[in-house]
Amino acid sequence: MSTIVVEHLSKVYPVSVKESGLKGTLNHFFKRNYRLIKAVQDVSFEIEPGEMVGFLGANGAGKTTTLKMLTGLIHPSEGYVKVAGHIPFERRSPFLKKVTLVMGQKQQLIWDLPAMDSLKINAAVYGIRDRDFEHRVGELSDMLSLEGKLTQPVRKLSLGERMKAELLAALLHQPEVLFLDEPTLGLDVNAQVAVREFLRDYNQRYQATVLLTSHYMADITALCQRVLMIHQGQLIYDGSLEGLVDRFAPCREVSVEFAQPYSKDRLSVYADLQAFDKQSARFLVRQEHLTTLVGKLLAELEVVDLTVTDPPIEEVIGQVFQAGTAQLS
């Protein structure tokens, strides 16, 4: 049975429209006109227990709106949602104890108090017994390398330490489902790596289901085998990262090192020459022509080394969003 089930989910916001000038202001005051903004349109997917799924999209694509509907913070305009066996927007206590939402740009810890005080408040809210509280805090602080930091005021912690403490607070009640919205936002490289390693370990230890949004593709590639991609409120891709490259980036990069120098004109006849440096070159070639190109290079030139790679995943995703025309087949 799927942990998250989403069928034909949509969210439409009415936005008032005001004309300029005094007349427009008076009309706006007495009789407002509205236009409809489709934030999410007919989105459907399922996530199995223990899966870690990346949720990709440009700013304003509908990611956060979808997460808020999955956690019950806003009511969907249309569609069906079930998370951990519950209807999210009913906001019942058993559901709230099974999920958590972590937003990298928001904080729940009280700024001037030690993080431990906020954790005790969370424990009281979720009805966690003292013995369980001590065990969970000890286990999670060990996993997050927060020993000795929880008794300091939150304002004295570094950004990375605060993010770790926020994760600890969000996971204190051992939720089954984690919704993570930019959990590494603003962190330095070392802190990002630490958070990723923790999330991977937590998923393996507790088999928690994770839906992760991030603008750092390293988060997605390190943690998620499956990705969902949303564009202008519509789900345009649901599958593996490898499949994403195959579908939206039909070209491959071929890097070649030669035993002797060749002119740029000589190399340009083989394929689209992206880079050139006397005894090395990088070509961009469509996948259906890849075998032919490699064969010709090896047969006609003195090749020392040759590698074929996919274009960087960041470039692939950027191309999809810039084009804005991708549709589900």
What does this structure look like?
The chain has about 325 residues and is an alpha/beta fold. It has two domains: about 200 residues, P-loop containing nucleotide triphosphate hydrolases (Rossmann fold), CATH 3.40.50; about 60 residues, 2-Layer Sandwich (Alpha-Beta Plaits), CATH 3.30.70.980. It is built from twelve helices and 13 strands. The strands form three sheets. It has a six-stranded mixed beta sheet with strand order 5-6-7-3-8-9, sandwiched between helices. The chain has a four-stranded antiparallel beta sheet with strand order 11-12-10-13. The longest helix is centred in the middle third of the chain and has 18 residues. The radius of gyration is 25 Å and the shape is globular. The C terminus is likely disordered.
Explain briefly what this protein structure is:
By secondary structure, the protein is of the alpha/beta class. It has twelve helices and 13 strands. The chain has two domains: 49-245, P-loop containing nucleotide triphosphate hydrolases (Rossmann fold, 3-Layer(aba) Sandwich), CATH 3.40.50.300; 250-309, YebC, transcriptional regulation domain (Alpha-Beta Plaits, 2-Layer Sandwich).
